[in-house]
Amino acid sequence: MTEKAASKKWFSTGNVLNALFFAAIIAVLFVPSAKSLLIRGLMGVGLFQPKTEQAASSLPIKDVIFRDIAGRIISLSSLKGKVVFINFWATWCPPCLAELPAINTLHNKLSNNPNVVFLIVDVDNQLGKSVPFIKKYGYKLPVFETITDIPSEMLSGSIPTTLVINKQGLMVFKHEGVADYNSDKFIEYLQKLAGD
Question: Any residues with CB less than 8 A from the CB of 70 and at least 6 apart, and which?
Fold first, then answer.
C-alpha cells in the first residue's frame, strides 16, 4: 500500500467521526463550559425537571444571614411571610452554570411578585468574582454570600442545591443537582406557595 493510499484510508469518514466523538468526550470531561453546554442541551429536551411532588414534608431550619455586594444584610427570619427560592452555586461548577439561564428566566417571570424572594448564594463567598460573572452573562439575579454557617439540612456539600422556604419559614423543597426551574409546573408550584 502506498503512503498516499494509507493516508487516504486513515482520513475515512468513520475515522474522522470517531476522532470528533473522542474530542467531544474529552472536552465534556475537561472543559467546564462544554460540560455546562451539554447539560443545558439536555435540559432543553426535557431532562432534569425538579420534582415538586417530593416536597411534601416541611422542615424547620435555623436562621441564616446573607449579604450582597452592597453590604445589604438579609436573614431568613426577616423573610417570613414570603416564599424564598435559594440556589447554592459556584462559578467553577458546570451543572450550576447550566441551570443559571433557567433560574434567571424564572426570576424574570416572578420578579414583580412581592411574595417571592430569590437568593442566589455563592458558596465560595467571593462576591467580587461571582457578581461580575453574573453580569457578564446578562443575568439579573440577586447574588449573596453567607455570613453565618449554613445548616447541613440546607446544604450538605453538593452543588448546585436549590431550596424553597415557605411563608412560615419551613423548607418545603430541596433539590441537589442540576434542574430546569423554568418549567410551568415549577412556576405554578411557587405561585401556589406564594398564594397567587
Answer: none
